[in-house]
Structures are given as C-alpha cells and as structure tokens.
UniProtKB/TrEMBL annotation, chain A:
Entry-linked SUPFAM superfamilies: Thioredoxin-like
Organism annotation: Lachnellula subtilissima
Domain Ribosomal protein/NADH dehydrogenase: 32-105
The protein's name in its UniProt record: Large ribosomal subunit protein mL43
Subcellular compartments: Mitochondrion
From TrEMBL, chain B:
One of the record's GO cellular component terms: ribosome
Keyword annotations from UniProtKB, A to Z: Mitochondrion, Ribonucleoprotein, Ribosomal protein
Protein's name according to its UniProt entry: Large ribosomal subunit protein mL50
The organism's place on the tree of life at top rank: Eukaryota
Organism: Lachnellula hyalina
Bias kind Basic and acidic residues: ranges: 227-240
Pfam families per record: Ribosomal_L50
InterPro entries, per the entry: Ribosomal_m50
Family to which this protein belongs: Belongs to the mitochondrion-specific ribosomal protein mL50 family.
Chain spans, region Disordered: 54-90, 210-268
Length: 137, 397
C-alpha cells in the first residue's frame, strides 16, 4: 500500500514547483557463481559507489539471488515495480539500465501517437504558420 | 614362351668378371641384374675422359692443361672460400675425481645415473624457499630489515653488502625505530645494542669463527664502544683478505661450515630463547607504533630495505609501487595484501565509502518476502493471522 496524494482541484505537475524523482528504490540482485552476473558484479564492485552517491534520494539495496540471472528492480512512488534482467551485460550497460530505471516514472509503457503530450489539450491543435493560407504582405 | 633367365642372356657374357657367381635362388636370379647398363660415375672430368678415349690409354701424353692455365670462365668462377677455422675450445679443467673412481659400464647397482654431484655448483638462491604469508611475520620482517639498514647506516657501512644467508636469530626484536627531525634514530632497549645487530649482520657475511668471540663480548659493552667496534669491523669488510676468506667460506660451506653454523646457532639460541618464541603479535605491539611513519624517501635506504625485506620474506614489491612509497607504512601496505575476496559481499564490505552511504544497504543473504514484511513490522501480524486461521506459517526465510 503506497501513500497516495490528496485529491485536489488542480493537477500537480512534477517539476513545476519541485521535481520529485519517481523512482524511490533500486534493488540490485546478483549471483556469485553464475557467469551471467559478471558484468553486474563488476558494476557493484566498481561503479555502485559513485552511482549511489550521485542519487541520494534513491534507496539502494544489494542482495544476492543465487542461481538466477542478475536483475535490477525499480520501485516507484506510484506503487509499481519495474525489473530489468541484466544478464551477460557489461558494467557500462548495467549502469545504463540502472539510469533508465532511475529516470523512469513507473508507469506502464504507452504507445506515443501524438506529438504533444498535455494534461490540457487544445481541440484546435497546434498552430502552424504553414497550414493556414500564409500571411500576405 | 619360355623366358630366358637374365643370367643366361648373351649380354651377360660381357660381365667384367668371369668367376662363377655364388649360389642364388631362382627368384633372386631372375630379379637381381647380373650387370648394370648405366655408366660408372668416374671422378674424372669430361675433358680428361675424352683425352683418355682419344689416346686410348689411361696416361695420355701431353700437358694436363695444354693452354697453360685456367680458362677465363674458370678464373671468373668464385673460388671456394676456405672454411673459417674455428678457434680450438679452451678445455676447462675437469673436476678432480676421487682416486678410487672407476667409471661404471652398466647402471646396475648405481644410486643415480649421470654426473657426480658437485656441491660447489649447487644453486643457492637469494630468496627464501618459502614465501612469508603471515601478516604479523611480514611486519616483523620489515621491522628487522629497517633496523638492520639503519644500523648499517649509523655505523657508516655500505648498505648493499647484505649477507646472503639469513641467520635464524633476530637481534632486532628489542630495537625501536624513532622518526626524528634530523633523521631516523634507533633506540636500543635493554636486551639489544647496535654492536649486536651489526655483529649478526657481519657474522652472516663472513661466517668466520673470529666474530663469535666479538659477539659474546659485544652485548656487555656500552654503546660508546661501538665506535671502537666499528674500527674493528670496517677493515674486515672492504679488505681483500676478508673477501678471500669469504670465498673460501662459501666453498667450504657444504662440507665443513654447515656444522659450524649449526653449532653457532645452538650457541646463540639459548641466549635468545625468551625472545625467539615470542609471538609476533606481542612483538609488534611492543614496538613504538611511530616506526611505521619513518621516512624511507632516501632511494638508497629504500632500495636496501626492500632488498633485505625481499630476502627475509620472499615478497616482491612491484617496481611501479616502489616509487610512490615514502614511509614504512606504505611499504607494508604493498607487502601485506589482503586476500582476494571470494564473494562479492566480502568485496563490498571492504568498501568503506559504499557501506557508509546512508541510502545503501548491502545484504549477505537473499532478501525474501518475509524479510521485507519484517522490515516494515507486518510479519508478526501476518503470522498471528495465519495461526488464527490454523494455516501453516511457511515461506522463505
């Protein structure tokens, strides 16, 4: 059960007043034995310190998961979880995946069909100088 | 049609020899040719052969070379270069064999097959046979090396003339190294003296029985007498006579000196019994910890210390690390390497900067759902509810 915000008349926009990172926790699971964890283990040994220090607002846990592929799990403030299997990835690729999870908002992936995303979409659409007959001087 | 055997062909009558052939079986008689139709390869050249044919004799008249010399083409031909004469190898003197030595023709009853074992050619390495792995022993070895090197420096002796053999007894246990403003000083406590340390080193070098008496007398004397000792010791070292003695000592080493050294050790040991069996931990604790901050920036001292430490422990400090070492502590950090962590958790726990971060938690075991429930204090409630419903309390712990 995740703490939900109070309902209000206006819709809050993350980043308008303050930016709140949507990812609240990252779990790193590794295996000591399996070769698919090689890059993950290298990341945990060498890069995790810097990554954790750069992201103090994200809780980071490291725990083994024996005989399984390495996984990064992100937990978001909307109550959802995202997990990425990082088997056989290199240290740099694991870092990319961790940054991807950190930057994600926790929502399901949606197909983006419109060029503009807004909570107050105009029925007229976006004005364009090329599609209105032009300006005659 | 019946084939005529080879031997009975008419051409067979031209055979150079007319003597009857020895007995041949029927098959051999068929296959083995009784004569060869190919011309004989003679050693004579074509011109000579022609001359002989023309004249019909083996000794044709006339000059061997009617034109009085070699032709132009023959002159132009490269003369075969004379083979470079190899300088005769110097024969080294064969090792003296015993008078009653008789080389064996068979290997029956021999203990070993090959050359006679010659002790003077036996390889004696600089490094010890076994590498020191214990941290405390390594620390003690570094301390010993430093005391010895600083003692040599204090006495004004050459730092590089270290003994090849390492004496079992360590006279440096009771010596403190004190970093000072005007250079590092050695502080000798009650059971030690500069002379004793130097004697142990010199004793190692020369292995001469003369030093024994000096060693016995030295501990009783005060440090002021060191100067007097020095005058005795110095001439020994660079003197040619002492070096010749050294050589003989090395040669005699396996035959006679071994017993002498054993006897030496048995004499020295009872004096040092109480110290020799002191555990390294207590020994290290007894030293002033400031010895680790002693500067070793002087390249000569640094090299000598590293060389002696290498000799005592067998642990090599990499060249790249030597340059950056400035204190005894830094040398020790290169000598004593922590064992490679087998598990990732061990490696992570050694990383102080990661563990101390407030947002990071590292677990040694798998984190199960029960752990998660426990961390937020819900597991007790779940357990109680399960028991109330008479359900099994199971799960991954």
């Amino acid at each position: 059960m995740v703490v939900q915000g109070i309902r209000k008349a206006t819709v809050g926009q993350n980043g308008v007043g303050a930016f709140i990172l949507q990812c609240k926790r990252l779990d790193f699971h590794y295996c000591d034995w399996a070769g698919s964890s090689k890059g993950m283990n290298s990341f945990l040994r060498n890069s995790l310190t810097k990554f954790a220090a750069l992201n103090p607002q994200v809780e980071i846990t490291v725990s083994p998961r024996p005989r399984r592929h390495p996984v990064i799990k992100g937990t978001y403030i909307n109550g959802r979880e995202k997990a990425i299997c990082v088997r056989n990835l290199t240290k740099e690729q694991v870092l990319q995946k961790a940054e991807l999870l950190r930057d994600a908002n926790g929502e399901k992936l949606k197909k983006v069909t419109k060029p503009v995303k807004s909570i107050n979409e105009s029925v007229r659409g976006v004005w364009s100088p090329y599609h209105d007959g032009g300006i005659h001087v | 049609m019946r084939r005529i055997p080879i031997t009975s062909r008419s051409i067979g009558l031209l055979r150079p020899y007319t003597t009857p052939t020895p007995y041949l079986c029927a098959i051999c008689r068929h296959q083995a040719p009784a004569f060869s139709t190919s011309s004989l390869r003679s050693s004579l050249d074509m011109t000579e052969q022609l001359r002989r044919k023309v004249w019909g004799t083996d000794n044709p008249p006339g000059l061997e070379d009617p034109y009085g010399g070699q032709s132009k083409f023959e002159k132009k031909k490269p003369q075969p270069t004379p083979q470079p004469t190899v300088a005769p190898r110097k024969m080294t003197a064969a090792p003296q064999l015993p008078a009653d030595y008789v080389p064996s023709s068979t290997w029956d009853g021999l203990e070993s097959v090959g050359d006679i074992w010659e002790p003077e050619y036996e390889f004696g390495g600089f490094l010890p046979a076994e590498m020191v792995t214990d941290t405390d022993e390594m620390t003690a070895a570094l301390h010993r090396a430093m005391v010895e090197i600083f003692a040599l420096k204090q006495a004004g002796l050459s730092l590089l003339d270290l003994p090849k053999a390492v004496l079992g007894v360590d006279p440096t246990h009771d010596v403190d190294i004190v970093p000072g403003v005007d250079g590092t000083q050695l502080r000798f406590n009650k059971d030690s003296s500069l002379a004793e340390v130097l004697q142990a080193l010199i004793h190692d070098v020369s292995l001469s029985p003369v030093d024994e008496t000096a060693e016995k007398g030295a501990p009783t004397e005060a440090e002021e007498d060191v100067a007097a000792d020095r005058s005795e010791l110095d001439p020994l070292h660079p003197d040619e006579s002492s070096t010749t003695i050294d050589e003989t000592a090395v040669k005699e080493w396996p035959t006679e000196s071994e017993e002498d050294v054993a006897a030496d050790r048995s004499e020295v040991d009872p004096l040092k019994d109480s110290e020799a069996y002191m555990p390294y931990e207590e020994l290290i604790a007894s030293w002033d910890p400031s010895w680790l901050q002693v500067s070793v920036e002087d390249p000569e001292i640094k090299f000598a210390i590293l060389k002696r430490t290498l000799q005592l422990t067998g642990v090599r400090v990499p060249d790249s690390a030597i340059r950056s070492t400035r204190t005894a502590q830094s040398i020790l950090s290169h000598l004593v390497t922590p064992p490679k962590p087998r598990k990732l958790i061990d490696a992570l726990e050694q990383k102080e900067d990661l563990i101390t971060l407030p947002n990071v938690s590292v677990f040694a075991k798998r984190v199960t759902p029960i752990h998660k429930e426990k961390s937020i204090g819900r597991w007790k409630l779940i357990e109680k509810e399960l028991e109330a419903r008479e359900l099994p309390v199971t799960g991954n712990w």
